[in-house]
Amino acid sequence: MSAEIWDPGLQSERTRLAWVRTAVALSTGGLGAAGLAARAGLGPLLIAGFALAALCGGVLLVRTASRFRHVQRALHNGDPLDSRPDALLAWAGTLCVVTGSVSFVVIMSLAHG
């Protein structure tokens, strides 16, 4: 049994796949929700919020390859990792989706209730 705390490549590969899933969920969820809001005739601000979530997801997806290389290099060199910019993008996109979803439910409830 090895005393090393990481396996060469697999931890960063799993992390990369998790970031890809997050990015794809934000992108597709944001685009789908923006389309749904547009078909429902809701305001452009709500549509823009969902589109912003999709944009955050798209940027995260594009950054995946460079982030993976950076993580690999940092793990092999023992350097500290900093994923704050990507985490902020993920949180911003998630906040847009949550805010837009709550607004969507409230607007639709008021319109039909």
Low-confidence stretches: none
Morphology: elongated
Give the averaged pLDDT, no decimals: 86
How far the N terminus sits from the C terminus, by CA atoms, comes to: 63 Å
Work out the strand percent.
under 5%
Largest sheet: none
Please identify the structural class as seen in this structure. mainly alpha
Number of helices: 3
List how many beta strands DSSP finds.
0
Helix content: over 70%
Please compute the radius of gyration using only Cα atoms.
18 Å
The run of helices and strands is HHH
Structure description:
With 113 residues, the protein is an all-alpha fold. Helices cover 82% and strands 0% of the residues. It has three helices and no strands. The protein has helices spanning 10-39, 44-77, 84-112. α2 packs antiparallel against α3 (84-112).
Tags for this model:
single chain; 113 residues; mainly alpha; 3 helices; 82% helix
Can you summarize this structure?
The chain is an all-alpha fold. The chain has three helices and no strands.
Describe the protein's topology.
Blueprint: H1 10-39, H2 44-77, H3 84-112
